[in-house]
Design a protein that fits this description.
The protein is an alpha/beta fold and 322 residues long. It has 13 helices and ten strands. Strands 1, 2, 3, 4, 5, 6, 7, 8, 9 and 10 form a ten-stranded mixed β-sheet that branches.
Length: 322
């Protein structure tokens, strides 16, 4: 009888451990073809291989919608941006309520850069000229619900304008995926593209094949205006896009890092294992995408916009960075 009880206890223990270890998590990333989607898939592969039972599946998402999906528990993981995370946490534009279930697994990853590029044969020299003087263009950008579209509205607000005013002045807007934006530009159906991607952005590289483009700098006043949303200035280094007409120039632009976000209901052990499987395999991690090459463990606790998940924080304390 004692042997039966002992076997039952051992079986229950094995079953419990297996149940904890074997999990499938959904990660809402970015548009298919974009940096977030690609990088999310690469990190998911590392987790799937190294975490000891966690399987991550990546699905399309967007910078604005991801915090809401994760906060509601529709997805266990997601990509987030510091400025959108903070807005969601506080219930500020574009969110109508506080997203208090949000937590961060790691921040400071894969800086994303705003790219505003136009045909190299365009006569326009600056964003001030285009938006300030309302020089009509056909512009491709992401759909409503993405971080770059939200920021584009902030750009328009800086120039004291909006979609309705610009459309009345002759502007036209095409909304689609990164791949569609590149295709529309190459086919000369649009004159310019406003997008937000990690370097080097595959969609920008693709757009430059077959049609010469130039990437425009963000004016100092515009960058100053965007600072209040937690968006910082950055530089697209010369040589990043060899086929661009201004490939030999540094381009000043706006930037923000990426954050792996989750829900506070995620078990502490799972959050711990996610942080561990990423940061104890940084050689693999840095090979996922060029934007991750400079990432270090110490960056994980920076630029999150929301509190760290306790399970992830436990790992960082053990590693001595908290």
């Amino acid at each position: 009888m004692k042997k039966i009880i002992l076997l039952a206890v051992l079986f229950l223990g094995v079953f419990t451990v297996s149940a904890v270890q074997a999990q499938t998590l959904t990660w809402t990333a970015g548009n298919v073809g974009g940096g977030w989607y690609t990088i999310g898939g690469g990190i998911a592969n590392i987790i799937n291989e190294k975490s000891g039972g966690i399987t991550v599946k990546v699905i399309p998402g967007g910078g604005v919608q991801n915090p809401s999906l994760v906060d509601k528990g529709d997805c266990e993981l997601g990509w987030g941006l510091p400025f959108m995370n903070a807005a969601a946490w506080n219930g500020e534009d574009p969110y109508s309520r506080k997203h208090e279930n949000l937590r961060a697994i790691a921040g400071g990853m894969s800086l994303n850069y705003f790219h505003f590029f136009i045909g190299a044969d365009s006569p326009y020299k600056t964003m001030d000229e285009i938006f300030g003087q309302k020089k009509a263009l056909r512009i491709a950008l992401s759909t409503t619900g993405t971080s770059e579209e939200w920021v584009f509205r902030k750009v328009m607000a800086h120039y004291k304008t909006d979609y309705k005013t610009l459309e009345a002045a002759g502007f036209k807007f095409f909304r689609g995926s990164y791949a569609e934006q590149a295709s529309q530009f190459k086919d000369r159906n649009v004159d310019a593209v406003f997008t937000f991607l990690a370097l080097p952005a595959a969609a920008v590289t693709e757009a430059s094949v077959g049609r010469s483009l130039k990437i425009m700098s963000f004016p100092p006043a515009l960058l100053k205006s965007l600072e209040k949303y937690g968006i910082e200035g950055g530089v697209i280094k010369h040589g990043t896009y060899p086929k661009a007409a201004n490939a030999n120039e540094d381009v000043t632009t706006a930037t923000a890092g990426s954050v792996i976000i989750t829900n506070k209901s995620l078990p502490d052990e799972t959050a711990y294992r996610l942080a561990k499987s990423i940061h104890e395999n940084l050689d693999m991690f840095r090979k996922v995408h060029g934007s991750l090459v400079s990432y270090e463990l110490k960056h994980a606790i920076t630029g999150t916009g929301i509190p760290l998940h306790p399970g992830a924080a436990k790992y960082y304390r053990e590693k001595g960075i908290m």
